[in-house]
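Supplementary Text 2. Reproducibility record for the structural model of the 144-residue chain.

All settings were left at their defaults, and a single model was retained for analysis rather than an ensemble. We include the record here because the model underlies the residue-level annotations in Supplementary Table 4.
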Amino acid sequence: MSQVTFVQDVRGPSRSVDVVLTTDQARELALALPGAVAQDHHGRPSFRVSGRIFATLWTDRAMNVMAGAERIRAAAEDRPQVCREFFWGKRLSAVQVDLGRADPELLEDLLDHAWRARAPARLLRETALGAAPPPGPTEPRARR
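Retained model, structure tokens:
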């Protein structure tokens, strides 16, 4: 991953400090994944691998990450102040991450899950990120 510098935001009378991810930093994290490219998707930036969307910048404060239903639910349950389930129609399609509250490690983890789910097997094999096999069968079927 490339080096990313994060903005510190001081809020409220208690002057607590939160890490804030900018859209440029979120974009940088997404594009650091092997084969990732940015492309317009209905007026919003999307991030793709081999033509398949794994994340979109939904607003200037939110990124939708297509991390798979299990990971989406876990993120929304574990970090409800930062993550929420995002439905497209009746289908759970992404976890929406509040960039103003997310830490870089969380976003990087979610992007990695989404990238692995969308990247072709060839790219997974060719990269260090592909070292851990994606869920599902990994061995070719034996011929009968």
